[in-house]
Amino acid sequence: MFYREAGQYKTSYAADQALFPILQDKVGMLLILFAAYFLVPLFASNFVIDSIFIPVLVLSLAAIGLNLLTGYTGLLSLGTGGFMGIGAFACYKLSTYFPGINIIVLIICSGFFSAAVGALFGLPSLRIKGFYLAVATLASQFFLSWCFIRVPWLYNYNVSASIEVPSRTLFGLPVTGPNATSITRYVIVLTIVAVMTWMASNLIRGRIGRTWMAVRDMDIAAELMGIKLLQTKLLAFAVSSFYCGVAGAMMVFLWLGNAESESFSINQSFLVLFMVIIGGLGSLLGSFFGAALIWGLPIVMRNAPLVFGIPVTAATMEQITFMTVGVLIILFLIIEPNGLARLWQIGKQKLRVWPFPY
Amino acid sequence: MRAPSGPEVAVGDVLLSIENVSLSFGGVKAISDVSFDIRKGEIRAIIGPNGAGKTSMLNVINGFYHPQKGRITFKGETRAEMRPYEAARGGIARTFQNVALFRGMTSLDNIMAGRTLRMNRSFFWQLLRFGPAMKEEVEHRRRVEEIIDFLKIQDIRRVPVGRLPYGLQKRVELGRALAMEPELLLLDEPMAGMNIEEKEDMSRFILDVNDYYGTTIALIEHDMGVVMDLSDRVVVLDHGIKIADGTPDQVKRDQAVIDAYLGVAH
Amino acid sequence: MHLLYQIFIDPFVQMGSAPDLFAQTLWEGMVAGVLYSLIALGFVLIFKASGVFNFAQGIMVVFAALALVGFYEHGVPAFLALVLTIVVMFILAFAVERLVLRPLVNQAEIILFMATFGLTYFLIGFGEIVFGGDPKVMISEQLGLPSGSYQIKMLGGFVQFQKIDIAAAIIASVMVAGLGIFFQKTRIGRALRAVADSHRAALSVGISLEQIWVIVWFAAGIVALATGIMWGARSNVSFALQIIALKALPVLILGGFTSIPGAIVGGLIIGIGEKMGEFYWGPLLGSGIETWLAYVIALVFLLFRPQGLFGERIIERV
Lengths: 358, 266, 318
Known about the structure:
The structure holds three protein chains of three kinds. Chain A is mostly helical.
């Protein structure tokens, strides 16, 4: 009853194809943005911002990147960690060579480095399909992981093979390094993620998104429409890697403050893949859901025994978390293989007809 | 079943010519030394018993299969083999025996996908969407809506095609092919699996496409009644060899054709 | 110019000038290859019969090994521990079929693949709770596996052959031969091949998918146990081992996902290629190229033959 579209008719195609054609969705989005920009900084503690909001936003961006490649174009990739790493190291080197340039510009630029490498490693995708392609992306992941340790130039010959983020300011406010406040970093991350998500949704709704989905669903028929397979796939790799690269750069510069090569290992790739699966392949909203769940669950589980007063060691809690994540993945796949996003859609559908059952 | 429609499209010059084409897979000869042509504006049927090589023939025209021997001349250009992209660019569109729709997308998106060749606003504008990209999107949407009206599939626009019944899927696939504004439309068993009413609807659509848009049509079909009523000329294949070529009446009476079908004729 | 010499001439010169080292490296590569093949074998079994790429094969190897050692440490004699572990693997196969495979029976393969991810994480957590996270020593002597090595004077120097490696090669060969015969000659083997071809067709001739899957996962479990014993005998058993499963992927690419002989050939090629690559070309690039060399080999291979060495050529029919 609340979520009804009756009475909302569109008088132009442009209006029909808007991002949030239904009024309730538009209002909802504005509320979310309002909450994100004003309520969170006002009411959430620095700890919560640092350990929940910033990580979830950064990981959501990586998940969107992977979703564009795997969910929308159907190219399974296990190289996400590596591409995030390229963005991070590129940003680090750029900040070393161009200390005067605005850090946000550098973060965006490092995305282009990731995009280039991503497109390069995406070349095999014309010959290799489906599962075999995933193995090709593994080659890129392991090779890049190796590079992050074995190429000392990347981390400025630091003895411990890790990178420390230099302090940078924006309009006089410290935004990176130890002096940057949580709120400053949070707002920057939020803005970058919001803008890039908006752009991703534009791509998806237009010609490029349709091309990607056509290649995913039936590439033979897509070729018939005049779609050039190689260019479409390479574009998917490039854009996806761009998003992952920016996420990686933000992870180091605006979230952790430092990084080691392990931050961008195969485990990171799996982590983002789980977010995409659980959140929903082929759904931008799902990327946020997945990131929130995969990141939030271990935190909740780690703190739950304390809340309930049950004495459990940290190690045991971690093991139980592993088990729970494993079971959750299986459960999700059984109940709703299309992930949280589909559950959300079903929920909205129920809202449409509430209080009637159908 | 021929609808009393508007002015008959004058059948013109040769649009597509197949010369001495042979195609084999490994040891299996799918097509042996077949030659025929398709004239502009006509409806050409390709018929024959199962395994005759009909779908393979369409695939050669499309560029999915590359013949070992022979030539294809399309719109005056002769080549040894076609590539799918060239075929699409040149104005060849196609439907498939097993409905090759993009299952993850809605009917509207599927048909819009058919407009891809004509959409060329750059990546940069696609990122922003307002401005030139939006204008292009709306313009093509208008054309696609015309097709949706023509095929009477308005109410299933937003339905993911995977959920549609078979007959409607075939209609959406036809719409997607039409969206390419093709000069040559290849239909692979468009009536397969349909009941009488659906067949009548589809026949009417095919005739209307030929009449209204002037599209040349080549179709593979098993229903003899449909073939006889719809087509201007027929070519008959059997085991990869052409055994007859002419008007429906000529072909119907050809002894070789009757033998090939073992006397089975609707 | 010098670089070209380093890449294309120098390593071979080295091989020729120290043939005993070459033989040693070759042997080491074959040994690693045999172990890779064993892991790949587990994948092939399951993929052949259910179309599922079982990412959890690696953790099953660890799990089996830990269970074996765990039983022994609780005072169970070695051979009884072996039997009990086999029983545990059967229970695991049964549970997986019931709880994971059956509910997902009609889903796309990618969904099943993801489910094995979930299974992996679950087994990691569960295994750590039950067995503890410390590395353990495999009970090779108690199982009757030989230790020590043969040192043979050959090719101008010495080549060392660890007895355990020879035992591993023999056991692996016996296993492969046994499985090969099983698949080709027995009724159940035929049923497995039928299921691999088409679930629906197999169902329609009365083959019980559930039984087949339990059998297959059990067989994979046995292979995992053998692999775990062999790997554990050479180095300790710990959870880090499970990432080795990923190494099986290049093996499967070379040998095909459904071919048992392919798993062997693929394993040997990858094992030898890796060891030789690391030893002779490694110093050029910096050490540790073992981590990615196998994948790059597989990638290059795929570019020329997208269906693998033994895989079936997929002709796309429209």
